[in-house]
Amino acid sequence: MTERELMLRGKMYDPMDPELVAARHRARLLFQRINVMTDDEREERNKLVKELVGSSGPDLWIEPPFFCDYGENIHLGKKVFMNFGCCILDVAEVFIGDHAMIGPNVQIYTATHPLEAKARNSGRELGKSITIGNNVWIGGNATICPGITIGNNVVIGAGAVVTKSFPHDVFIAGNPARIIKTINNA
Question: What is the 3-state secondary structure of 66-88?
Fold first, then answer.
């Protein structure tokens, strides 16, 4: 199995593998170009974003600056909006559903490391996929940790640190995030 295959399967992998280094370099070149384009260049910016991410639906809007590891492991639904400063560490796949609203400086991290010092010091790492449902609003400065699934119609409060998965139709906030209330979306 290649290091890339190990990475995408959530197994320990070597991030310094030449194929992975080249893929991260490609992503950086693309998002650096995206991040300096003006609103007058929106059409060209959108083409570059489509080239960067693995898949996306129509009506995608990303305010620069935007940052990611690979880009190709990010899958976006229709009418997704990301505000300024979003960072997605996509060493594993990230799925973001339709009509997602992502506030400024939101951090979405699939990348993680072993807890044990000896394994962590090996230089190898791993990732855990993240799934964010439809109609999710993520408040500014929220952090989504590796391996999380967020249900549909969830609101995540500003500054929340999401360390576990949550069901549909809830408002969550805090550090660590917890359910504040159920949302009636009937």
Answer: EEECCCCCEEECCCCEECCCEEE
Three-state SS for 64?
coil
Q: Is 5 exposed, middle or buried (0-12, 13-18, 19+ CB in 10 A)?
A: exposed
Please indicate whether residue 99 is annotated as part of the active site: no
Asked if CATH classification 2.160.10.10 holds for the domain at 3-182, the reply, yes or no, is: yes
Query: Which residue reads 């492991």 in tokens?
Result: 73
Percent of the chain surpassing pLDDT 90: 95
CB 12, CB 125: distance < 8 Å: yes
* Domain residue ranges of the chain, discontinuous segments joined by +: 3-182
Choose, from 25, 75, 99, 113, the residue flagged as catalytic.
113
From the list 124, 82, 125, 113, the residue with the least C-alpha distance to 94 is: 82
Half-sphere exposure of 125 (CA within 13 A, CB side): 17
pLDDT range class, residue 185, cuts 50, 70, 90: confident
Q: Tokens standing for 57? A: 């639906």
